[in-house]
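Supplementary Methods, section 5.1.

A reviewer requested that the exact input to the structure prediction be made available. We therefore reproduce it here, unchanged from the version used in the analyses.
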Amino acid sequence: MKWLSDRLYPKNPLPTPPTLSKFRLEEKLHALRSFSLCGFSKVLFRLRFISVTCCIDFGRVCEGFKVAEMSEAEDNDILELDSETEDGDVEMTLMTDVVYSEELPTYKSMPKGQAVPKVERSEFNGNPDSLFFNDGKRRIDFILAYEDESKNVSEKKGSVMRRRQRRREFFEGSLMNLGVELEATQSVMDEKLIYVKVHMPFEVLCTYAEVLHIKLPIQPNDLATESSTYNCFTHHFYPSEDVIAKEPDFFTAPFRKDQLKCFCVKDREQFFTPSMRSKMAYYILSRAPYDIKGSMKKFGISKLLDGGVYKAAYPLHDSRFNVKSKEPDCPNERFLLYNEWAHPKSFYKMQPLDLIRKYFGEKIGIYFAWLGFYTIMLTLAAAVGLGCFIYGYTTRESSTWSKEVCDPQIGGEIIMCPQCDICPYWRLNTTCESSKRLCIFDNYGTLVFAIFMSVWVTLFLELWKRYQAELEHDWDTVEFLQQEEQPRPEYEAKCIYDRVNPVTQEKEKVPHTACGKCMRLSCGISTVLFWILLIIASVVGVIVYRLAMFIIFSTKLRNKLKYTKELEPFKEYVTPQMATSITASIISFIIIMILNNFYEKVAIWITDFELPRTKTEYENSLTLKMFLFQFVNYYSSCFYIAFFKGKVVGYPGEPVYWFGAFRNEECDPGGCLTELTTQLSIIMTGKAVWNNIQEVLMPWVKNLMFRHCTQVGSEKVIPRWEQDYQLQSIGKLGLFYEYLEMVIQFGFVTLFVASFPLAPLLALFNNLCEIRVDAWKITTQFRRIVPEKAQDIGAWQPILQGVAILAVATNAAIIAFTSDMIPRLVYYWAFSVSPYSDGSDHTMTGFINSSLSVFNINHFSVSNKTADNTTLNVLNIATCRYRDFRHPPGHPNQYEYSVYYWHVIAAKLAFMIVVEHIVYFTKFMLSYMIPDVPEALKEQIKRERYLTQVILHETNIKHFKELMKPVADNLQDEIEDPELDLRL
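The structure derived from this sequence is encoded token-by-token as follows.
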């Protein structure tokens, strides 16, 4: 029996999580039950075998661990986890998982009193493209760089240096104790720098592949895949398969060490890809201990980097981006990505997503897949928006609105009331050019385009879900669950409280009580609300600026244009409203960028304080905070112009004042749509230019300065790890800010597109550059990113859906309340015919006169009467006009709203209700008719899952038959020779 137990449970060089053993036990017992043995004696033997194996695994499962309290270190270390046994020895433990608890191998440090092993030292062998140790056999999976304290002659910081050296030696000793192999090499360019090369042996890789639930191939996939419509359309734009070979397709399953024979292991060194190896190496580095203080144990490479113990930690690029490696085992994937993806000459090509995913991981791959799909969908929206713009541009001269405003006999005879207390009277035809510009964006084509965009955004989201489902299947993340993601080291370090897991009903460790968690969330919510109120306060400040500057521009700008001959050509274009709008938009953009920098740090601090369990939860929490802030920061000024400016202004005799001092600003005679368009164009363009400057120039300049300061010469004599050290680190949040930038852009494209049909076109041009800029940046200017697994775009998906729903309401409200579309339609269908008009045909003639109310200038109060008596004497007028629908002076209800006003209000509300219901119903039907996962793909997933289970089951049965064959032969001998036992 001991022989059989040893065969079933071989002694591994590294401990196996006990829960995994429990799962193996159940599967083995099930397979054993299904395995038929002949004879009653065989049944008895099976029962004896089950009892023995149960005892073996029960002893493994019942190993208990204790978690003690965490305390702060003198140097503010936050990654601390300590426990104390009865005999006083310190040992590392792990908190209970959501589904089950397990002891990870990384938490086994060196026994107390054991000498710290030393790292092997070696000299650079002169091969700059090598990805191996000096022996040429052990692959480099990770690089740690630090500065040798012995080279530093300063005694002032001697204690700090010694502490760093002690922690580093303990950390590296812990790594070697876990089975990781290390080799240190001195820098070629800087004798103070030391590079520690990390290698993961095959046995260590197998252990952590099982811990991280990494899926590996078990058999080639012989099922025929159906190409989607999207792939058929884009197939001709992909790089040639002769350059980038197509990735082979396999049936895969989560790796298990005891089922190694089930997997396709042709070459032990090539079985785990470089991205898998670096992912597992980083997992060990994040959890290996580096210091012990009393009953406290500290761990994690992140804290060592923050404390300056190590200067950098990164996986290696496989080659230079612009020169192909001559190493025979180098795949040159970075070189291929640069030439076929990141290089500007490849701007027209589709992205090699499979190679991106293989080299950078699923998380980076899914981002570029989403960005590419979004850009392709923008081409349709940009084409329709450009068509609407061309239609408005060609009809601006023939529009009845612009004709009447520009006509000297109509617009030239209409004297408008002053728009501020010290502003002059003015003629309506002075706004001729601005009226023509308004007709470009405020026409019937804009209405059609707004409805089209509401449908487009639904199609985009639904088709993306289908495409995302295909990527999940192709990249083998269909069954990726949150429970597969390991807790963050920061979370594990502070788990000191007990609670009962609601799923397993077992005790587990958590970092805070229910009351503590509530207090943390309350603190985070209150901080976010405070910053949102701060943004609103800044918007109010910009509004006050607009009110004050409009008065200044109205009094000084016109006079300057009038008496300055050089500025005479700009008289028709530079109006007080336009000057105020442009300067206020620039100031708003500057305030937005300043507040972004401050809140970015605040949001990260709040999220760290909340202490999410996994990295996905961390990013989702940070995503929500950042988007709420960015939403208010970027869109608040647009919402003000669209829905508040010019809505509550009173009339010339009784204007509305802000703070009792500033008269509320009015819109142009054509409304505020032009100003909203100006605001959107300035913010979108400024944001795109600023982001590209940051993304392109900043990394390039930093790398250039670093190379200059270190006096780096030709790269031919510099090893691969030192070349990568000269690059920039991408940061802890990865491409979080890239997602945020694109989602904010998505909001501009959808929320306010009724006022600016060219927004999709601007977004398209920006994204075509953004894809290549991001690709160039992460391929050439940044160190290689640690691969991460991801199933979708995370919290950004529901945010996009929320923006799409809100876009329907905002665009309907813009057309109803910001543009002049509804008043024109009401006049055309109701007030251009009798009894309101002498004519009997529907026409737009006379609309300008009907949309402007009359005010008697003698009704101005003394406090707000204009001082422009010269203009009054010259014009010899008694009344002026203003934009509103009120009764004229002398009417029994003078200056009160007329029936025209109530018709327009009713039409606006009816328009919003009808359009929203129609669009929402259309969106609902499209969402219902377009399933998130294609039926053919569902069947293929089920088929592959079934075949995978069959393959694993047959392999298990075959393995057990091999194990049971000697025992069955012995039992058969006993049956055939019953006197054998008596002789024994």
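The first strand starts at residue 80 and ends at 81. These observations are discussed further in the main text.
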